[in-house]
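**User:**
Everyone, produce one record:

**Assistant:**
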Amino acid sequence: MTIDAAFVKQFESEVKDAYQRQGSKLRPTIRSRGEVKGASTVFPRVGKGTAAAKARNGVVPVMNLQYSNAECFLQDYYAGEWIDRLDEIKTNIEERQVIANAGAYALGRKTDELIIAALDTATAEAVGTAAGTTDADGLTKAKVLLAFEMMGAADIPDDGQRYAIVGWKQWSQLLQIQEFADSRYVGDTDLPWKGAQAKSWLGAMWMPHSGLTLSGSTRFCYFYHKTAIGHASAQDVTTDVTWHGDRAAHFVLNMMSQGAVLVDGEGVVRMRAAE
């Protein structure tokens, strides 16, 4: 019973730690709200204000801001696994961590699926007729610069909270762009070769992701601002471990309640890349 109690307590902490470390790649790049009460929550959206002059002793002009909301609905997700009652499984750290990581990663992928589904509802696209900007092209420098121009034209803040996610095929294409991969342009500290997971370029953090939508032979990549997507969680990843004597095994249940929604469509630009 002492072994079982230690196993349950340790397993719960390891699943939570694994999810926080590597479960979701996209959650840190968007607005995230925790401990939501109820089946949904609302992310406020505030329009642009206009400044105006005031006559002496006159009434101060108002900005006439337009307010709207984006409602995020939460859904429950589960990932379970049976673990046979073998002491070497319950006490061997490597085996226990493998099982804990599997559950955390499964829920982490689901979190990213929710965020990507919200990104897919955006309508702004960096597509043109010039060479390198059509649907027949991969992720070219011309297409990236077109998306960069669209972000600027929409007055999306260049405040260090811009992100870009691309598929691994597109990441390989970016590595062939000198301005992206050459230290003469970006400096030695921002080169992607050191970890191949993320790098800063054009005022945004770029990272590859394997779960982006593939529509036919077109991969949907995104250039977006952190405030454009909202993520809500009523219950972060939790683990329940119960003993089933008829199976002589523990059943490990990982679960969470989360959702994601597009808050501001102007803050997301889709880059369609042929693959």
Summary: The chain has one domain: 1-46+68-275.
